[in-house]
Amino acid sequence: MFLTHRTPQLPTPEEALRGRPTPEFTVPSRHTVLGNPLTGPYPQGLEVADFALGCFWGAERKFWQTEGVWTTLVGYQGGYTENPSYEETCSGLTGHTEAVRVVFDPKVVSYADLLKVFWESHNPTQGFRQGNDVGTQYRSALYTHSPEQAEAAQASREAYQQVLTGAGFKEITTEILPAEGRTFWPAEPYHQQYLDKNPDGYCGIGGTGATLESPSETNWGRACPTGIAPAPSASE
Length: 236
Prior knowledge:
Radius of gyration: 17 Å
Structural class: alpha+beta
Largest sheet: 6 strands, mixed
GO molecular function: L-methionine:thioredoxin-disulfide S-oxidoreductase activity; peptide-methionine (S)-S-oxide reductase activity
Strand content: 15-25%
Region (Disordered): 1-22, 214-236
CATH class of the domain at 45-195: Alpha Beta
CATH architecture of the domain at 45-195: 2-Layer Sandwich
Active site: 55
EC number: 1.8.4.11
CATH topology of the domain at 45-195: Peptide Methionine Sulfoxide Reductase, Chain A
Order of helices and strands: EHEHEHEEEHEEHH
Number of strands: 8
């Protein structure tokens, strides 16, 4: 959302803003599109996945439109600052990405299916940017909640790299990191389901046009069994 002329650079833990011990706002109770609670605890049998693919407004919509997704919420993840604000995150001094937490029913949609949505909905080769959105908060990342998710994420990355290389794109810069120790901090209420509330609002999400094969027909898709990642609360 903020185009800057300086070269983006991640802060060190010592350079990062301290944040605050408690949030300055209350997260809305329910999803404006799906009608389900935004924060946990979630019903038994659901699983969670965390994705960062640029501006979270458009990214969240991609996932809530996916069948089998029970709820989505946007937030900040992968940095150092506790309970950061949007302005702090956009300053580049928190180290966070703009992330989407996706809670889904694995009986309807698999993590591998969500990975396909992730890869095809943005350009994962751009480093600290997505299109005109420049900054460390726009970097591509997958925060995994189990060894199986990590394996599937890595396998899908390798598969999509082959597709992108064949289409003339550079190396994927997506981070694949454990969600453990990387708290998901929910964003302010006005960011939640922003494009439902503002249908003509800004959306910087755009894919490369390169398509990943269907997970059910590939080895990388079969690397991700179901029933592996119980959905945590939003602050985990």
